[in-house]
Amino acid sequence: MSSSWFGFASRSAARELGRRLWRWFLAFEIIRWFARTVLPVLLILTALGAAVWVAVRTAGWWLPRLTGLAIIGVILVAAGWLARRYRWELRAGLPRTAVAVGVLALAGVLGTLVYWLR
Question: What distance in Å separates the CA atoms of residue 61 and residue 80, rounded to the nearest whole number?
Answer without folding.
Answer: 30
